[in-house]
């Protein structure tokens, strides 16, 4: 089912900058409804030149710091890509999609409901792995 992201205007190729892309990602994240105990930090990673488009890669790291453990032992990353077509007019909206660090499944923000459980599962799996090592 299609998920309408309310109050977020589409970013066009004309309007795109790396900073505006990061702001758009922050706007998308604000619609996810994750618990306030989760903190995140986003960063631009790289620009990728393709034949028919340009892709801009970002990472958003998530964690739940506590008073007892202000520096978490594990984080969960969500990787965003903003793709700008070289074929479509620059007035068209850019494409935004994301993947979770432990998955190859590509999500489109307007077509999926983000689940906080995905972040919890990544962190739990990392903790289990650390205990085994």
Question: Can you offer a commentary on this structure?
Answer:
With 133 residues, the protein is an alpha+beta fold. The protein is elongated. A four-stranded antiparallel beta sheet has the order 1-2-3-4. It has helices spanning 18-30, 116-132; strands at residues 39-49, 53-63, 76-85, 95-100. Helices cover 23% and strands 29% of the residues. The protein is built from two helices and four strands. The protein has one domain (18-132). This is AKA14 protein. One of its GO terms (molecular function) is protein kinase A regulatory subunit binding. It comes from Trogon melanurus (Black-tailed trogon). Pfam families: AKAP28.
Within the largest sheet, what's the order of strands?
1-2-3-4
What's the overall geometry? Answer: elongated
The helix fraction, in percent, is 10-25%
How many helical elements?
2
| Overall pLDDT | 92
Structural class of the helices, strands and pairings?
Answer: alpha+beta
Number of domains: 1
Q: Give the N-to-C terminal Cα separation.
A: 41 Å
Radius of gyration: 16 Å
Order of helices and strands: HEEEEH
Q: What's the count of strands? A: 4
What does the main sheet amount to? 4 strands, antiparallel
In short, what is this structure?
The chain has 133 residues and is of the alpha+beta class. It contains 2 helices and 4 strands; from the N terminus they run H-E-E-E-E-H.
């Amino acid at each position: 089912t299609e998920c309408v992201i309310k109050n977020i205007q589409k970013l066009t190729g004309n309007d795109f900058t790396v900073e505006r892309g990061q702001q758009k990602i922050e706007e998308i994240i604000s619609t996810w409804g994750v618990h306030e105990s989760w903190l995140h930090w986003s960063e631009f990673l790289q620009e990728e030149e393709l034949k028919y488009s340009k892709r801009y890669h970002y990472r958003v790291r998530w964690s739940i710091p506590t008073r007892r453990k202000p520096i978490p032992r594990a984080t969960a990353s969500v990787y965003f890509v903003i793709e700008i077509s070289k074929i479509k007019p620059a007035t068209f909206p850019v494409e935004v999609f994301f993947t979770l660090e432990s998955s190859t499944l590509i999500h489109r923000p307007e077509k999926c409901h983000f689940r906080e459980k995905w972040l919890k599962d990544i962190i739990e799996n990392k903790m289990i792995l650390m205990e085994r090592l």
